[in-house]
Amino acid sequence: MKKRLFEPPNSKLQFQVLSTRDIARINDAALEVMEETGVRFPSSKALDVLEEAGCSVDRETMVAKLPSELVIKTMRQAPTRFLLAGRDPKDDLWIDDRTTYLSTDGCAVDVYDLESGELRRSNRQDITDACKIADYLPEISYIWGPPVSAQDIPAHIRPLHEIQAGMEGTTMHIQPETVISEEIARYALEMAAAAAGGRENLRRRPLFSYMQCATDPLGQDGGSLEASMVAAEWGIPTGFMPMPMSCATAPATLAGNLVVTTVDAVSPLVLMQLVNPGTPVYFAAAPTAIDIKTGGYTGGGPEDFLLAAAFSEICHFYQIPLAMGGFATGAKLPDWQAAVDNSFAGLMPVLTNTSIINGAGTLNGSKIFSLQCLIMDAEIFSIIAKTSQGIEVNDDTLAVDLIKKVGPGGNYLADKHTRKYMRDIWQPLVYDRKPYGQWEESGRRGAFEEATDLARWILENHEVEPLEEGLKKEFASIIEKADRELSK
Amino acid sequence: MEKEQLFEEMKTAVLEGEIEEGEALARKALDLGADPLECIEEGFVAGINEVGELYEAGDMFLPELVAAAEVMKEALAVLEPELARTQKSREILGKVLIGSVEHDIHDIGKDIVASMLTASGFEVVNLGIDVPGETFVGKVKELKPDILGMSALLTTTMPEQKNVIEMLKNENLLGGLKVMVGGAPVNKQWADSIGADGFAENAVEAVKVAKNLVK
To answer: Which residues of A touch B204 (CB under 8 A)?
Structure first.
């Protein structure tokens, strides 16, 4: 349970990237592409559903052309808000299109070891540790990922262990992005149902939700589609994350990128609504541009920041919540570049009232997880949240009487008005605000060193409600069954 | 038309990434009875070399490199049959077999590597995506490449790179064959631990590594 207080941002600031007309043009373009060129759905199950609903389907290329009326009609059936439940109801999140929640980032393959500082491959224990730190931080609202890949577990049952490892570290909601086949999706939902106390309880209180990756441009992955069709069938929230990279998997122009992003985020949700009308779905996206020098993923930069804000505005048009990739800096260490990237990447979604930002804690373009980075990202988000509250102007906050009373040359330090409002002033967790001399004496300790100490303290002292023994046994038998069936 | 002018136009087509133009120039050269080997070396390769220099100097970027490679590839498709007919051969740096491992459907990074290798003077056979280990082994036996390149974008498919290397080892196919691995989760430590000979983080680096491996 979280001990510190934090109000997730619901930005009061005025900010706009696209005009209403721009949004309409991008959306019209996306509808045109879906209808005339179509999207690749490499799953015969998915194509069956789409064909039945009136899409023209080419079984050879596995491309379905989605009529605009169908897209608009099905998207209207999607709920505008839904619940992501925590194992502890205090961690429940109502996802709407106003409040912005920050999750962890997902699926890093390396970690900076907290004790040695060395880079090493990630394992199952790293998931529990990352989740425990996230559980302590009120700025982090749920677990996306898993934060790192459990590479010490055989690949065919890895996603199930990753979910359990997450639950051992937190009572918050868990949203895996590694459940990418129908079989594994069914086992994962069996685990979720066991934790929720049955399938019906799970539908009412989804402890897990699914996130899939799109295969840009204009495509999806077959296994991921079928995994999420199971989620839709169970009424569990699901979304698909396109990541079009301008110049490579999207046009170089940002407007063109937004068309591809829209097509790849919307089209799978049409399928989900056809599978189960009214099932909770969300948009997801992490549009970006390649490093034109190397073709590599950048993890930040002005294109990402603009695309994030613009796509959020497009999603408001549909009134469906958006999970935006952010805090995915390409910096190798939590340094100046990481802070620049993550500040902008966090600010833009908040200013445009994006529902979710995925997520905190990684470096090197989501490939390295750092517990210190997780804490420092939470701090960046806390600064953004405070900034987005704006400035309240009323008689009491204008304080004219007080200003007159104190007059020229006085001070406000001990006044009642000061004591009433001073706690509204942002307080840091790891920011360095020491005087120079003390900083020097401390051995030049800054935010990173503070975050290291805090991470150690949390791992030692923060208590997370453990999984019940009975549930652990149920998990063990589900995983054992999956191991038998899937290793064949 | 002067030969020199034709070569100059070929070079320009490469520099400007004009695929159809390059192909048309190759055909025109053959119609005029030009030596296909000379066209490749004096025209297209000269263009590729200049693109390489401009890239190194920071005046050209990857999309331009890929476009230049595409021009080269299409021109070669026109010129090579004629070259074979005259029983001449161009100098190639080596033969590369490349593919994304089984269950991995990601092709863009691997395709960029393939076209950059082609443009740099390698003969490249691209096996595509989701390539089973048996196919890699069978093709190695059949084509006897100098380099095998395997791409994996997922931590779940990455172990397949190791499996294929072991299969090759079991069949005694690693003598004379260099193995290169790449993909987002792949790093130097992984490449070393599975006994790969080369690893690169992007396409430009991959060409450098491949050139070193065939030295």
So the answer is: 294
CATH number at residue A437: 3.20.20.480
> Which single residue is written with the structure tokens 């019906």?
A200
Give the residue carrying structure tokens 């609504």: A273
Judgement on whether residues A29 and A43 belong to the same structural domain of the protein: yes
Could you give the ipTM of this predicted complex? Answer: 0.84
CB A209 within 8 A of CB A236: yes
B190 within 8 A of B180, measured Cβ to Cβ = no
Q: What are the φ/ψ torsions at residue A325 (nearest 5 degrees)?
A: -70, 135
Half-sphere exposure of B177 (CA within 13 A, CB side): 26
Nearest chain B CA: its distance from A56 CA (Å): 24
Q: How far apart are CA A252 and CA B117, in angstroms?
A: 24
Chain centre to alpha carbon of residue A426:
24
Taking the C-alpha atoms of residue B144 and residue B146, their distance in angstroms, rounded to an integer, is 7
Nearest CA in chain B to A155: B156
What residues in chain A have per-residue pLDDT under 50?
none
- Is residue B77 within 8 angstroms of chain A, CB to CB? no
**Residues B159-182, mean pLDDT to the nearest whole number:** 95
Domain boundaries, chain B: 3-85, 94-213
Pick the CATH number of B94-213 from 2.60.120.40, 3.40.50.280, 2.120.10.30, 1.10.560.10: 3.40.50.280
The pTM score is 0.92
| Structure token digits, residue A298 | 């950048």
Q: Is A440 strand, coil or helix? A: helix
CATH class (in words) of the domain with range B3-85:
mainly alpha
**Nearest CA to CA, how far is B1 from chain A (Å)?**
37
CB contact at 8 A, A230 and A185: yes
B109 and chain A: CB distance < 8 Å anywhere?
yes
Domain range for residue A401? Answer: 395-424
For strands A140-145 and A174-176, give the pairing. Answer: parallel
CA–CA min distance B16, chain A (Å): 16
